[in-house]
Amino acid sequence: MPLIVQKYGGTSVGNLDRIRNVAKRIAKRAETGDNIVVVVSAMTGETDRLIQLAQKITSRPNHREMDMLLSTGERVTIALLAMTLQEMGWPAQSFTGRQVGIVTDNVHSQARIEEIQADRLRDALSKKIIPVVAGFQGINRNSDVTTLGRGGSDTTAVALAAALKADLCEIYTDVDGVYTTDPNIVSNARRMHKISYEEMLEMASLGAKVLQTRSVEFAMKYRVPVCVRTSFYDRPGTLVTEEDVEMEQELVSGITYDKNQAKVTLVGVPDRPGIASTIFEAISKENVNVDMIIQNVGQAGLTDLSFTVPQTDAVQAKTLLTELSEEIGVAEVLVTENIAKVSIVGVGMRSHTGVAAKTFTSLAAEGINIMMISTSEIKISCVIESKYTELAVRTLHDAFELGADRPPAKEPA
Ligand code: ADP
Ligand code: ASP
Ligand code: MG
Questions:
Q1: Which of 195, 191, 237 has the alpha carbon at shortest distance from 219?
Q2: Helix H or strand E segment including 60
Q3: Which of 83, 152, 189, 366 could cross-link with 183 by S-S, CB 3.0 to 4.6 Å?
Q4: What residues flank ion ligand 3 with Cβ within 5 A?
Q5: C-alpha distances in angstroms, 160 versus 118, 166, 251?
Q6: Largest separation between any pair of C-alpha atoms in the chain
Q7: Per-residue pLDDT reduced to its tens digit, 309-333
Q8: Which domain holds residue 170?
Q9: For a substitution probing ligand 1, which of 8, 77, 173 has the most ligand atoms within 8 Å of its CB?
Q10: How are the residues of the chain apportioned to helix, strand and coil, as percentages rounded to the nearest 5?
Q11: What is the CATH number of the domain that holds 20?
């Protein structure tokens, strides 16, 4: 019998009616005889609510305590969904991350899964129990609760699918697939039938939050087919899979944006060997991800260095760089938070030129200034002022003619 892992996101389990709707979907699938493992997120808004509670106590909450707090959101939904299924006569059981053996590293709030000891899940499946697993959480080797970063339930689902060698991992969310850009911003965005792991990885890492980046990394590494679908209607969704000849070889396949960005500028950095390594080593020790880096031409032995970090890490980066700047002789540390990164993704760009020129011309025509640029063979990213994000996304989506005739499907009111 096929084994399917189904993940339901926050909006899909946002209230009891929606939990009942999800339970009906699971039951319909179970009736066909398929083995099902269910992964759920916290109810929509719950993780944000818990973060705000912690911030009322301290602006720098302890990471271990934060993970303990945030992991509770998913515990609520697993229990409620398991009860609903039981009421409908199905032998469901809820499991925390720890109970299904999800072992991670020690990086609280951004933990990586190192191992899955899935014996308990296999045992439940062999007894025809429907396991309902808490997404987004695991434990480290000290048995402390860890969480996998925002959107981490996607990664729980794909990692379990890989560990159990499932036939398919279905990600149920509030949109009916992966679109050429965020359908909540561009009304004529087009749903893709299929997308390659490589393109999806690029789109996710550049801000398309429909799948967490690490979930796509797992899917690609273990060749797990992933289908992104809506839990509100019966629609086919988007298959994330190996690149094949049938796939639309578009020059540009999607536009993404990421507002969780901040620019850090170090003014008057000594221009000598070893300084950059000292700076970036200190940042990486704090688990802050640095993205685009620009160093100006040096003058009189000094240079300026700018780079982007997630906005959520900007305060931490500024604190540690201010301490370090005295040691290495940097004049000033500046942080700009009102920036966003807009990117164009497409494997077709490998063999075509002109995409960069068209991107810059289109943004210039709207009076949008580009502060930083970075490219790879399948993407171009520009940092702009965040107030222009939506305009930039729509402009580029139009410029590369990515739109569809029909508006995308929305969740019911
Ligand atoms: P869930 O709570 O189900 O995990 P998320 O909010 O994490 O849902 O992800 C779904 C959202 O991703 C959509 O509502 C949409 O706004 C956003 N999104 C961003 N880019 C895209 C894209 N290219 N295709 C589809 N959705 C996208
Ligand atoms: N509840 C977590 C979050 O809001 C994990 C998830 O939804 O995937 O980020
Ligand atoms: Mg999500």
A1: 195
A2: none
A3: 189
A4: 9, 151
A5: 8, 8, 34
A6: 77
A7: 999 899 989 999 999 998 888 999 9
A8: 3-174
A9: 173
A10: 35, 25, 35
A11: 3.40.1160.10
